[in-house]
Design brief:
With about 290 residues, the protein is an alpha/beta fold. The protein has a single domain, classed as Aromatic amino acid hydroxylase (Phenylalanine Hydroxylase, Orthogonal Bundle), CATH 1.10.800.10. The chain contains 13 helices and 9 strands. α4 packs across α6, α6 packs antiparallel against α7 and α6 runs parallel beside α11. Bound molecules: 7,8-dihydrobiopterin and fe (iii) ion.
Length: about 290
């Protein structure tokens, strides 16, 4: 299969949707854009990201300038937890995605956002995927959780629970918060790679922050185009792995039998609340409406 990737580069796409990274093809301007994004996020994440993430950045030597070469990066990562990073042109189908994760391969988008979309874009580019996701794959417990998620996805094949699984990924891997001794910290990659949400998720009064509950969260809708209305809080990665390191069969049975869907701002009496948000940001119409407050 021969396709035109973003930015018009052609690439040969393999059966598993991977492509050669072709690192040499990135321009100086694109490497410079990575460096600016990197410096900006690093400054913001001091005291906001969880220690496991900040240590991961350090262990992987992500600070070496420019878009990382995936082969070198994977060689360092593989020594730590056995994970590798593979290049993909875009979002890949769910079953392909699950297969990569189940085999400790993280698919990373092989393009970088344009200057115009520096602060926000919905598609996963190399900055989101590598800066946001890969550092935590150096943590042994989180690394196991990601593999367990991939295997849970494979077992979901043919069952009506894919939406539930996608919510689990979204509310943990992409937008999760962690309550640590030093205070609330970020571990979700969607936040870690975002200039505005890395501040909003911790410091704004709008969103609810609710303690992680696997089944509850799997029934809760999420927003893909704006800040989350609810963030789910874990104590540590052990909690996450413990909750998901199980035979997903009975859980899938329960989810199929009960198709309740909660709106993103729902609060139930049985929820373990960190704080109830005002929802002011969403009520004001969202997408950076907070300037008004
Ligand atoms: N593909 N490249 C890529 N990155 C993702 O994060 C991704 C994907 N395909 C499917 C997917 N995520 C999610 O819908 C799954 O968690 C269900
Ligand atoms: Fe992501």
């Amino acid at each position: 299969m021969f396709i035109k990737t973003r930015l018009g580069r052609e690439a040969d796409v393999r059966e598993d949707y991977t492509i050669d990274q072709n690192w040499e093809a990135f321009t100086d301007e694109e490497h410079d854009r990575w460096d600016r994004l990197y410096a900006r996020q690093n400054r913001l994440l001091e005291g906001r990201a969880c220690d496991e993430f900040l240590e991961g950045i350090h262990k992987l030597e992500l600070s070496k300038s420019g878009i990382p070469n995936f082969t070198d990066l994977s060689d360092r990562l593989e020594k730590l937890t056995g994970w590798r990073v593979v290049a993909v042109p875009d979002l890949v189908p769910d079953d392909v995605f699950f297969d990569h994760l189940a085999n400790r391969r993280f698919p990373a988008g092989n393009f970088i956002r344009s200057e115009k979309n520096l602060d926000y874009l919905q598609e996963p580019d190399v900055f989101h995927d590598v800066y946001g996701h890969v550092p935590l794959l150096t943590d042994p417990v989180f690394a196991d959780y990601m593999e367990a998620y991939g295997k849970g996805g494979q077992r979901a094949k043919g069952r009506g629970v894919l939406k539930n699984l996608a919510r689990l990924y979204w509310y943990t891997v992409e937008f999760g918060l962690m309550k640590t001794d030093k205070g609330m910290r970020i571990y979700g990659a969607g936040i870690l790679s975002s200039k505005s949400e890395s501040v909003f998720c911790l410091e704004d009064d709008s969103p609810h922050r609710i303690h992680f509950d696997l089944e509850r969260l799997m029934k809760t809708d999420y927003r893909i185009d704006d800040f989350q209305q609810t963030y789910w809080v874990i104590d540590d990665f052990d909690e996450l792995l413990r909750a998901t390191y199980q035979d997903f069969g009975p859980l899938y049975d329960a989810l199929e039998a009960d198709n309740t869907v909660y709106a993103p701002d729902t609060i139930l009496t049985e929820d373990s609340l960190q704080n109830e948000g005002t929802q002011a940001y969403a009520l004001a119409g969202g997408r950076l409406a907070q300037q008004a407050s």
